[in-house]
Every structure is written in structure tokens, then in C-alpha cells.
Design brief:
Helices cover about 0% and strands about 65% of the residues. It has strands spanning about 10-20, 25-40, 40-50, 55-65, 70, 80-85, 95, 100-110, 115-125, 135-140, 145-150, 155-165. Strand 9 and strand 10 (about 135-140) form a beta hairpin. It is globular, with a radius of gyration of 16 Å.
Length: about 180
């Protein structure tokens, strides 16, 4: 069976550390997969991103996954993007103007704060075709997006998975 590098599991919370040249300090970002609707070969997840640095910003968006693509409408480093084509194969290339992307490995090992991961997919992005920098991101099978090192002319940043858990239950307001 093919490895799932971007599982969409309802009520799953991903906690990330985010450091960027755009701000001082370390932000904590929660990506909560709230609900997943499945229709045939297509899945659409309703996602909430909570970004905390000095203030807290909350944004909701969708992640779409079908037989051909995993597409996020928003994200931590840049807005939405085509994460990668399906099925996953080493050497697959795709352009998302002005950037050029390639799956350069599906056997990488990575040791980060969230743990040790094997058989990771490594995606290399040449920003503006390589003229403006590069980004490398990793996806672990059965886990998803675990690490990104983004180095462009206008900013540098690192995203690292810290933990995976359950979305906390909403507190019910008591009636008086």
C-alpha cells in the first residue's frame, strides 16, 4: 500500500515551532484538522490555524486531497500551495509559478523535537526558479508535514513539528 504523506485525520492537532526573519522570537502554531468530508476519491478538510507570538491570530481554511494532488489553501510559511502530486514518486517535478518543485527523496531520515522519522519525503522548491532562494520541506509517512527550511531573498524561516495530539474540546458555556 502507498505511504500517506499527508493524512487528514479529524480532530488531530499538530503543534509547530516557527522562527522567521520577519519577527523576533519563536511563534507556536497549531494546525487543527477539525472535520474531513469524503466524497469518492476526494477529501476536503476544514482546518484551523492558531498562530501565537505576542498576539494570537486564528484563521480557517481548507486542505483538499484527491487522486492527483494535496492542496492547502493557507499555511504557516506562505499562503496556499500545491503541496505535492499523487501518487508520490521520487523525481516528480511541478511548477507553481514562479517556483519549481521536485520530490528529491522518499527515503530521508529526520530527527526533530517531535521524534525520529524514517522514509520521509523531501520536496525541494527553487524559489523563482532558484533565482530567489530555496526551500526544503519534509513529510513523514502516516504523520504529514514535519519540517521546512525556507531561505529566500526576502525572508528565512524554519518550521518544526513539536507534537501531535487531539484538538481540545470546546468548553461549553454554562447557562445561568
Amino acid at each position: 500500500m502507498a505511504k500517506d504523506y499527508f493524512p487528514l485525520k479529524e480532530k488531530t492537532r499538530y503543534e509547530y515551532s516557527y522562527k522567521s526573519s520577519e519577527f523576533d522570537g519563536e511563534a507556536i502554531v497549531f494546525i487543527d484538522i477539525l472535520k474531513v468530508n469524503k466524497k469518492g476519491d476526494k477529501q476536503v478538510a476544514n482546518v484551523r490555524m492558531t498562530f501565537t507570538l505576542r498576539d494570537t491570530n486564528v484563521n480557517e481554511y481548507k486542505i483538499k486531497k484527491d487522486k492527483k494532488w494535496v492542496i492547502t489553501e493557507d499555511g504557516i510559511v506562505i499562503g496556499g500551495r500545491k503541496e505535492f502530486p499523487l501518487p508520490v514518486k521520487e523525481g516528480i517535478k511541478w511548477d507553481e509559478y514562479p517556483d519549481a518543485n521536485e520530490i528529491v527523496s522518499i527515503t530521508d531520515k529526520l530527527s526533530i523535537k517531535a521524534g525520529k522519522f524514517t522514509d520521509c519525503m523531501k520536496v525541494l522548491t527553487r524559489i523563482a526558479g532558484g533565482d530567489a532562494g530555496t526551500a526544503v520541506r519534509y513529510y513523514a509517512p502516516g504523520v504529514g508535514y514535519i519540517f521546512e527550511d525556507y531561505s529566500a531573498e526576502d525572508k528565512t524561516c524554519k518550521v518544526e513539528l513539536l507534537s501531535i495530539g487531539n484538538v481540545p474540546e470546546e468548553k461549553k458555556k454554562e447557562k445561568k
